[in-house]
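Hi,

I'm pasting everything inline rather than attaching a file, because the server keeps stripping attachments. The sequence lines come first, and each chain or strand is labelled.
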Amino acid sequence: MSNRDEVRRLAQESIARGDATGWFEELYQRASGSWDRVPWADLAANPFLLEWLGTSEARACGRRCLVVGCGLGDDAEALAAAGFSVVAFDVSPTAIEACRARFPASQVEYAVADALAPPAAWIARFDLVFESYTLQVLPPAARTVAIAALASLVSPGGRLLVLCRARDREEPEGQLPWPLTREELEAFREQGLAQQSILSFFDDETPPVRRFRALFGRRHSK
Ligand SMILES: C[S@@+](CC[C@H](N)C(=O)[O-])C[C@H]1O[C@@H](n2cnc3c(N)ncnc32)[C@H](O)[C@@H]1O
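And the predicted assembly:
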């Protein structure tokens, strides 16, 4: 059984128990520092985030940033290095412990929290909410809850940047990680955000994976 198959089995069992997120902590604990056993742990910042940081969209953002499902912290550190004041959270305490151990001098505030029920103090607080690859590992009901919760964290005038796998509505969903459709991303608009840009592209994996980079914004309050 490949590592990805094992991860899918762990996820399936957890979701079947009605626990959409319990398997993440289990996976990080099982890896116990051998991060190559965590399929998404590249130990490097996401190249599509780095690319976006060079755009005028990124320069136009305010500096208070929240990183959702931060994993081992590389994207949070990249955002801090780019001048953002960063809070980064993950539902897995082991992942957050690893962030603190990997980056002991970090300016990032790391926290254990759940995107399905974020702390009330975070509501409307962030100029940039950055989400990569977490929505695509949540089953549909949890994904809907997460979209509403993440939208609520964007400040007036703030932005939400999503990186995810992409598919057209007619294409099969396939297996985890489940690609998102444009229509699913539009759910952010129902939460009071406006879509500012959406880029559909293929990465350089073999075979290439289609992805979206989508930016939403909340209007300034009057
Ligand atoms: C597929 S990984 C992506 C990690 C990282 N964002 C990246 O792009 O490499 C999803 C991450 O989100 C975390 N996660 C899953 N559900 C979550 C939730 N409800 N709240 C907070 N973090 C969550 C997992 O523990 C995991 O670290």
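The mean pLDDT is 96.

If the labels don't parse on your end, tell me and I'll reformat.
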